[in-house]
Amino acid sequence: MSKTKIDVILGIQWGDEGKGKIVDVLAPRYDIIARFQGGPNAGHTLKFGDVTHVLHTIPSGIFHADKVNVIGNGVLIDACIFCRETDALRRMGVEPRERMKISDKAHLILPTHRMLDAALEQRKGAKKIGSTVKGIGPAYTDKTARCGLRVGDIFSAFFAQKYEALKNEHLLQLEQYGFDVEEARIEDMPWREYEARWLAGVEELRGFEVISTEFYLNRAMEQGKKILAEGAQGSMLDIDFGSYPFVTSSSTTASGVCVGLGVPPSAIGKVYGIFKAYCTRVGSGPFPTELHDGTGELLRQKGHEFGATTGRARRTGWLDLPALRYTIMVNGITDLIMMKADVMDEFPVVKAAVAYTLDGKMLEAYPDTDTSEKVEVVYKELPGWRSPLSPARHQDQLPQAFKDYISFIGKQTGLEISIISVGPDRDETIMNAQ
Ligand code: GDP
Ligand code: IMO
Ligand code: MG
Known about the structure:
The chain is an alpha/beta fold. 31% of the residues lie in helices and 22% in strands. Helix 3 crosses helix 4. The longest helix has 18 residues, at 159-176. Guanosine-5'-diphosphate (GDP) binds at residues 11, 15-21, 43-45, 47, 303-304, 308, 339-340, 342-343, 421-424.
């Protein structure tokens, strides 16, 4: 059997594009589904029949009995949240130990990382990032500072000492920040109670197959197995290419796959870029096409734009094509997947940003954070299709105005849209749309 390549699914806006749904839809074509970055800041929603389920750390292939799910070395694991996820799966009759392998090099989020995240956000005041407060920033900071704890450490005879040492270091930092540790709560419980659950979660983690997943994945490719890498967050939240500093702390772009799974760049095959037919963003940071009017509210209500992880209302706005062209470029997107156009079914007109101007001059490139707060947006207005997209299962069933809209996006991005999602359910998907 010939050697295979890894296909990748990436959100190419500000997250919540619908990655969970599409990974679940495409999973039957693959043998292995692997998460490569992020952690429980992610909330990936899957819907099939009566079941709606949100995954945070666990890959979105977990509901397919014959697939192997991998949590790669680039992922962060909070043992308490992980345990809650495995409990929920067991209640649904899914035994995650039979379907999942975890990298010994994945880093752990400690309860004190979560407190540090909260303390740092508090100190930033009005300039806060709007983090999910899951401890992502502080845990990746410890990883690069070379003092983090990894999943492999939980099997060490010295794990308890290592944990206490890092926790005490964090408590010192928290004290310096004037953070009231004694009264601190995590998820509405005293932090010590959270810690007890976290330690129980470590026990749960010990029951999983913890391996050097880089060997497993490279061997799997040698054996002709098909792998799908599942991204979390979106390219506009990438630590390098996102709207810094209002970003997450990992490489959410295609290159993150190589460092987050231990696979070479030459192993990357297709790079699917998922985007919504409009834009959303949770947390702070520039959002040039944001709507503060009734249309924005309509998008939020009809699209149920409330965070799958934090429940926060998502900011909403028109599709941003300059941003999309930028993320297509940095990721080398080969295939586009468009989500949630059905939310705009009744709109008389649909708008999309086609360019930005600054002081009357057209901008060539996507602007940096400071500039993008000052730009004027040039919009293209297109007629709405004013008919329900959700029943369509084939491109021939799509209204002409919608077909015109997708061919406009195709021209603007230089790529055809290969999959169109017309509703949250697995079935509400049009494959090979063009
Ligand atoms: P992810 O983080 O990229 O996996 O996306 P989320 O799960 O955070 O948010 C996507 C939301 O949109 C979820 O509530 C999905 O059930 C829903 N969804 C996905 N695709 C579609 C679609 O095509 N139409 C509609 N109306 N909802 C969708
Ligand atoms: P999925 O995988 C949307 C945002 C937060 C905040 C910033 C930094 O579901 O698409 P962090 O907790 O990472 O330090 O927060 O990033 N953010 C997301 N927004 N979807 C996500 O994940 C996100 N994960 C983080 O709101 O603005
Ligand atoms: Mg999400």
